[in-house]
Amino acid sequence: MDYKIAFSEGQNSFIVKTSGKMEPDSYIKMAQDLLSHPRHKTGGNLVLDHEDLDFSCVADGDLQKIRCFHEENEDKIGCGKSAIVVRPGMAKHWYKLWSRGEKIRTANNVRVFEDINEAINWIML
Asked: What's the structural domain count of the chain?
């Protein structure tokens, strides 16, 4: 999985563009890079642009590995907003993917969008 992290001054949020095949180690590396970024603040907002991410073959154990990382770092993540953007028609598949196994326990407000402009508008509310 490849990713590019950018901070948007106008939106006061991070925008992360991902591509390739979703793999737990690279997904966690992306999250570590966000949490260690100089502009990171607990409770900050994030747009995860997964429009070019292939999440069709993620194993349950891989999901659990990502969940564990998230829960272990909950104090650094905080209660901001995270907008997940997927290709049109793929939101139900994203929900189905993350419905497998245990739900992530988080104070973070997460929503899934199929349009990046709608995601950005929600982040800016």
From this structure: 1
Helix/strand/coil for 30: helix
Tokens of 72: 């272990």
Nearest Cα neighbor of 47 from 3, 88, 90 is 3
Q: Under a CB-based contact definition with an 8 Å cutoff, are residues 52 and 90 in contact? A: no
Spell out the residues 6+ positions from residue 60 whose beta carbon is closer than 8 angstroms to its own: 100, 101
Among 4, 15, 85, residue whose Cα is nearest residue 46:
15
Does this model's pTM top 0.70? My answer is yes
Find the CATH number of the domain harbouring 35.
3.30.750.24
How confident is the model over 28-69, as pLDDT tens digits? 999 999 999 999 999 999 999 999 999 999 999 999 999 999
The domain of 47 spans: 2-124
Query: Cα angle at 112 between 107 and 115, to 5 degrees?
Result: 140
